[in-house]
């Protein structure tokens, strides 16, 4: 018995040893898992802290240095300064919070054309205000006058608005807006917006459609026509920069875009779906049909009418889309953002016709018969 017991003892000892090892390994595994968990948690918290901190830092850096400051600081931007150099100067002068954030903000917004010179700036200025100042070469001064240009206005009307606000001669303003030498200087200054297409023979007024509808503040009661137009074209450039990718996808020039958008703008009502109107125009062009849009007839006549009559359609003019194929030579008014967007992203429809009712509702049709029925119901029988 004692010999048999002695023979079995090594087995029991081995089993005990294995059990102890398993327990030891399990404990070690628990410790490892705990370490991994703690490490992952710390890493996660670190990432959150860095990300949150980075977001907070950038948000703060985009704010004015001192919102309520009234201190005027003289800033000199040397000729040939890079965006990095300008940012460093502005940070050193206390106009912006961070030169690097300024640099990437300018790059993200696709801003350019900063002008060298002496500026009087204020720590309360926002980044858009600083950029506008640097692009126009103007110091930020008290606003003493504003000019509001509504959507859908034609160059003659814009000249009238400018004349009224600045107390200048309307005819003289209109003449300067159409002076070829003046327009050529603007083409050189704004090559991303204006092209030689606006100087073609059939284009009535080169700047038609390019003076963006907006409210413009001025520090002078009588800014010059050049100052006013420069600010307006700068705004047009900023707006069009947002649509650069879409224009490239559609292989569409700025002139084509502004021309199509102006037709949409003039046909649209308060209730109208601009993208559906755009769809009709594109569908007609695709089928080789004339656009036959009444605003082009009125533009050809050079006058506004409540109704277009059959005799009006007979005018022999390159803008009369009842006589010409395709788009007119240029814009017929200044389109707003919604019309520009519609010209680039039209609705997907099979419609070829539309009419606007007396209530402002726009009715769309796929066939001429359907269109004529709606005309008789909502237009002819309402006379």
From TrEMBL:
Q: Known EC number(s)?
A: 4.2.2.29
**Do the record's keywords include Transmembrane helix?**
yes
Localization terms from the record = Cell membrane
The Gene Ontology CC terms held by the record are: plasma membrane
Its membrane topology, per UniProt? Single-pass membrane protein
The UniProt keywords, alphabetically, are: Cell membrane, Cell wall biogenesis/degradation, Lyase, Membrane, Transmembrane, Transmembrane helix
Q: Which N-terminal residues, if any, form the signal peptide?
A: none
What does this gene product do? Functions as a peptidoglycan terminase that cleaves nascent peptidoglycan strands endolytically to terminate their elongation.
Q: What is this protein called?
A: Endolytic murein transglycosylase
Q: Which source organism?
A: Mesobacillus subterraneus
Instruction: List the gene name.
Output: mltG
């Amino acid at each position: 018995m004692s010999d048999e017991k002695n023979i079995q003892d090594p087995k029991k000892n081995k089993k005990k040893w294995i059990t102890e090892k398993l327990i030891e390994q399990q404990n070690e595994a628990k410790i490892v898992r705990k370490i991994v968990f703690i490490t992952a948690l710390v890493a996660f918290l670190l990432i959150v802290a860095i990300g949150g901190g980075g977001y907070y830092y950038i948000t703060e850096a985009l704010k004015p240095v001192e919102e309520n400051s009234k201190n005027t600081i003289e800033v000199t931007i040397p000729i040939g300064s890079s965006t990095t150099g300008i940012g460093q100067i502005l940070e050193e002068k206390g106009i912006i919070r961070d030169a690097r954030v300024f640099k990437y903000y300018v790059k993200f917004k696709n801003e350019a054309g900063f002008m060298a010179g002496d500026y009087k700036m204020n720590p309360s200025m926002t980044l858009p205000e600083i950029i506008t100042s640097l692009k126009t070469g103007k110091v930020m001064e008290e606003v003493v006058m504003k000019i509001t240009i509504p959507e859908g206005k034609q160059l003659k009307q814009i000249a009238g608005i400018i004349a009224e606000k600045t107390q200048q001669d309307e005819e003289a303003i209109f003449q300067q807006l159409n002076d070829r030498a003046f327009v050529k200087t603007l083409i050189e200054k704004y090559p991303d917006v204006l092209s030689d297409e606006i100087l073609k023979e059939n284009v009535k007024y080169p700047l038609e459609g390019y003076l963006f509808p907006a409210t413009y503040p001025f520090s002078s009661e009588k800014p010059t026509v050049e100052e006013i137009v420069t600010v307006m074209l700068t705004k047009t450039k900023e707006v069009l920069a947002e649509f650069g990718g879409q224009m490239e996808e559609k292989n569409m020039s700025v002139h084509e875009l502004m021309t199509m958008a102006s037709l949409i703008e003039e046909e649209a009502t308060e209730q109208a779906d601009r993208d559906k109107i755009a769809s009709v125009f594109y569908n007609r062009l695709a089928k080789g049909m004339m656009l036959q849009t009444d605003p082009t007839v009125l533009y050809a006549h050079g006058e506004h009418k409540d109704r277009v009559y059959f005799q009006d359609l007979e005018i022999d003019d390159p803008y009369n889309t009842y006589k010409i194929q395709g788009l007119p030579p240029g814009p017929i008014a200044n389109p707003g953002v919604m019309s520009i967007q519609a010209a680039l992203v039209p609705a997907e429809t099979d419609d070829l016709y539309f009419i606007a009712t007396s209530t402002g509702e726009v009715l769309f049709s796929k066939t001429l018969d359907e269109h004529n029925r709606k005309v008789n119901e909502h237009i002819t029988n309402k006379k």
